[in-house]
């Protein structure tokens, strides 16, 4: 109301107190007063051409006298925006009133539109007044009375849920039609308009128009918003760090009304007080920090958003890459220059295979072997895996050895922190076998046991 009064005051000020400007850039009203005669149901364009409007606004008034004039709208000449007073807003929405630059367009003329229309240049005191006479048609009866439900015209429905809009006409047998703002297509006829399954594209403004062919049509505008929940994730797969046994999961939850959010794993909702799983939020951004991870922590997690109108979820899969391999050493096997190289590695996920690479220090040629891994860690540990392979080396050469583990999820491990170097002696290393000595000790023990009954008899005698 205050803004409308302020605009009216500025408009009246534009009619009564012109502002002096320079002669060269003084605004000038180019249109002259005119009388327009049109037929009911037609359209008419009332011209208002202004030279050098500068930053001044242009006002359109309806009425015959200064005191009885109604401010229709204020046109902003600089940015092309305009402000319509409350009593004419429905006419703009329904297409009854329109503008073409600074010209005023009146559509679907009726006898009620017969009046004087004044275009005024703000502050400059220049105006042009057109008289409009609408011929034909029947004189309008009292306006129709509409009862809208909901009364505030605001409807919110969840995606996939129904929405109902109602326009009831009191005291008249009028036809009610419905259309969406921006389209002339009639969506429904009757006092009730149902959207049985709301979709996101249904969001917008809807107008019900009542017309009995006698009174001036009445209309009401509803604003329909689609309440929804939308969950987004930056990554659908997060690879946990084997070095510090941590992983960070994040998702974004948006919606209207503001949705709630929960994290889930394969066992159900994640407890807020779990010390190894820290849940945090910052606005619509939500995080799940996994710490001190175990192999059982790998798998699928869900970011779940919901409100009273809808729900949505996204899945994040947590996998793990092995850590760096630690080569334990190369031990002779007793078979020429064949050595057994052994290593261990920490991994949350079982090892599928090891990529074993070695080369002579004096050569750039790299030889590789794929060594099968194991699905079970060593006894007493949940993350320690061991592997080994036999390699035949050339005597007198120094070798570099690198081992890269690959998990069952095809995730390669971290790079080996230190390259293992190994020098092969010029002569084969003999391995002393203890198998023969153990056999001799066992035969001697059995012989002593066989004589034990005789020794017992001698002691008794």
Could you explain how this protein is built, in words?
It contains four helices and 34 strands. Mean pLDDT is 84; it is low at 16-21 and 455-460. It is mainly beta and 461 residues long. The protein has helices at residues 2-16, 89-93, 435-450, 452-460; strands at 28-29, 34-39, 44-46, 50-51, 57-62, 70-76, 82-84, 97-100, 103-106, 115-121, 126-135, 145-149, 154-158, 163-170, 175-180, 186-189, 192-195, 204-211, 218-233, 237-240, 247-256, 260-265, 268-269, 277-282, 285-290, 299-307, 310-320, 326-332, 338-346, 351-360, 367-372, 384-392, 398-407, 420-423. A hairpin with a 2-residue loop joins strand 22 (260-265) and strand 23 (268-269). The chain folds into four domains: 2-135, Immunoglobulin-like; 145-225, Immunoglobulin-like (Sandwich); 234-320, Sandwich (Immunoglobulin-like), CATH 2.60.40.10; 326-423, Immunoglobulin-like (Sandwich). Strands 13, 15, 16, 18, 19, 21, 24 and 25 form an eight-stranded mixed sheet that branches. A six-stranded mixed sheet has the order 2-11-10-5-6-7, covered by helices on one side. 26% of the residues are buried. The protein is elongated and about 125 Å long.
């Amino acid at each position: 109301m205050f803004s409308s009064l302020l605009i009216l005051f500025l408009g009246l000020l534009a009619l009564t107190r012109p502002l002096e400007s320079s002669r060269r850039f003084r605004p000038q009203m180019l249109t002259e007063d005119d009388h327009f005669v049109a037929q009911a149901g037609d359209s008419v364009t009332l011209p208002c051409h202004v030279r050098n409007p500068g930053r001044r606004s242009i006002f359109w008034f309806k009425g015959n006298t200064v005191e009885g004039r109604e401010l229709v709208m204020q046109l902003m000449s600089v940015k092309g925006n305009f402000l319509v007073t409350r009593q004419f807003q429905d006419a703009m929405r329904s297409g009854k009133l329109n503008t073409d630059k600074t010209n005023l367009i009146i559509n679907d003329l009726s006898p009620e539109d017969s009046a004087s229309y004044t275009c005024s240049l703000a502050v400059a005191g220049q105006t042009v007044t057109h008289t409009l006479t609408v011929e034909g048609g029947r004189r309008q009866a009292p306006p129709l009375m509409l009862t809208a439900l909901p009364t505030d015209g605001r409807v919110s429905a969840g995606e996939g849920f129904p929405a109902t809009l109602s326009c009831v006409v009191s005291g008249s047998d009028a036809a009610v039609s419905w259309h969406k703002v921006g389209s002339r297509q009639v969506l429904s006829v009757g006092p009730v308009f149902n959207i049985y399954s709301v979709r996101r594209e249904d969001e917008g403004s809807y107008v019900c128009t009542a017309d009995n062919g006698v009174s001036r049509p009445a209309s009401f505008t509803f604003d329909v918003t689609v309440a929804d929940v939308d969950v987004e994730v930056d990554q659908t797969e997060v690879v946990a760090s084997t070095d510090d046994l941590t992983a960070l999961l994040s998702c974004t939850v948006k919606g209207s009304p503001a949705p709630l959010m929960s994290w889930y794993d394969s066992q159900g909702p994640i407890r807020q007080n779990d010390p190894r799983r820290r849940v945090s939020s910052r606005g619509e951004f939500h995080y799940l920090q996994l710490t001190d991870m175990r192999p059982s922590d790998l798998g699928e997690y869900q970011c779940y958003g919901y409100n009273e109108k809808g729900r949505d979820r996204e899945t994040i899969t947590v996998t793990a890459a092995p850590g760096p391999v630690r080569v334990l050493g190369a031990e002779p096997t007793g078979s020429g220059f064949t050595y057994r190289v052994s290593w261990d590695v920490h991994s949350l996920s079982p090892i599928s295979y090891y990529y074993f690479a070695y080369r002579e220090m004096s050569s750039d040629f790299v030889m590789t072997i794929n060594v099968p891994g194991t699905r079970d860690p060593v006894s007493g540990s949940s993350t320690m895996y061991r592997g080994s392979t036999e390699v035949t080396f050339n005597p007198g050469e120094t070798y570099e050895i690198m081992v890269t583990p690959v998990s069952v999820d095809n995730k390669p491990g971290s790079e080996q922190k230190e390259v293992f170097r190994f020098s092969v002696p010029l002569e084969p290393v003999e391995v002393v076998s203890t198998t023969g000595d153990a056999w001799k000790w066992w035969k001697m023990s059995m012989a002593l046991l066989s004589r034990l009954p005789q020794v017992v008899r001698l002691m008794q005698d």
